[in-house]
Design goal:
The chain is an alpha+beta fold. The protein has helices at 2-7, 34-46, 53-79, 81-88, 162-167, 269-276, 282-291, 293-300, 305-315, 363-377, 405-414, 470-475, and strands spanning 10-12, 18-20, 94-98, 105-107, 120-126, 131-132, 142-149, 180-182, 185-187, 192-195, 198-200, 212-218, 228-229, 231-232, 237-239, 324-329, 336-339, 345-349, 355-356, 384-387, 425-427, 434-436, 440-441, 450-451.
Amino acid sequence: MESNRQSLEGHEGADGRGHRISVMQSTQKHGDPKQPSLSGLRNVMKGLCTNDCELHFERFLRRVVREEVECKIQDFLSSRGWVNQISTSRATPFELRFVTRTPDIIFTNSNVISEDKTSIQIALFDVRDQSVVNVGPLSSLKVEICALNGEFGSNGSEDWTEGEFNANILRERDGRRPLLNGDRFITLKNGVGCVNKLVFTDNSRWIRSRKFRLGAKVVPPISIEANIKEGRSEPFVVKDYRGEAYKKHHPPSLNDDVWRLEQIAKDGKIHDRLSLHGIHTVQDLLRLYTTNPSSLLEKVGNITKRSWITIIEHAKTCAIDDDETFVYHTAEQSIGLLFNSIYILVGVTFDGQNYLSPDILNPNEKHLVETLKQHAYKNTDNFKSIHETSLSCSKPLTFLGVGQSDATEQSLQRFNISTEQEGHQGTWVGNGQPYASTSYTDESVHSYQIYADPVPDITDMPLNNPYGSNSMKDFFSGLCIEGDSWVPYG
């Protein structure tokens, strides 16, 4: 009897007396419901001899029955997936949509705008004819903007219940400010609403997907018959605003610091090497890449081919300053070369007045211009900066004709620049002057990394080349730029 008493727990009865009835807590798992029930029942039977045991027995049975019923219901719903499918289906003719696309990266404390730099737009659509609901009471609904988990809808499903949408709405972390500030509520006008001011106060790293979405839902009360489906944006990453100072520019500008380019970290090794050689801006990098790409690669240092291509391709997306041009003349002042702001050849003159497009030159003239160009690239300090509108030409671009061939031939005869370089040498046709190969091979990379700057074949250059200047082309009546020297790998 003593041992039995020690094994029982004390319970306070309704009459205030202590009762020793041991009731095991239900720890049954799915698939084995009987064992804990029998064990608990056995403990209850041990205390039947005590008073007021009916109260404890009733509580125990209620708990067991409730847990067992919940397990059976869950099993039934899990085994009958079609029940869930039916319950999640929302046959609604109206839905909210984000008309503009959000950028892939957003910074905290910065206004959320679309990829095209405009305000975020939301519209109410009638899915039956894919039109905006611009008339009637639904065209002026009040809409709430919220933050959603980036995983919501990641499986590609566009069908969800109102409960599922609300379950994915994110709230601020403990001790933080509200996750969203600004235009949390907007009113549609003719079925369209704009979110002019919206700011995230926290980054998205604290959730598993590391991404947020914007959500839009109608603010109640709203007619149940309307049954308007919520809208969601594409997922995006929210980073701390302190990282915005280090973000890359797409596209970069010529005056941007060189570390704004991809693969060049601020105060990193490549940035330090370039700064050591006086390359501080994107324009500095492009000028050296135009004049001597192998020298630029040497200054960048030992990097992979992929990184090198990424740097150059990103730099080449910048807009060229149309107003900044340079002229280089020979000692005789009879031949002149016209370069743009990053030293790409855009014009040639043989008489000091009429500038020709490089693509119309004959082979002898192209050899002459190429040699002079390479000589000019070694003497960029002698470039004279001019404004394109200051070029005093009776005809901005005069195509080479019969009357100009004599001037060109005279320029060929007078032209005498020492071009001896290491490597291949050739001879000018008709004048016996040597010319040098303009190919560059970098010793620090594998043999396949050869940077060729051959006599340009302008006809191969695409018309939409980002280095083409529309205003320059208009000024020179169709002037083409030299694009072959921008191909880093042959």
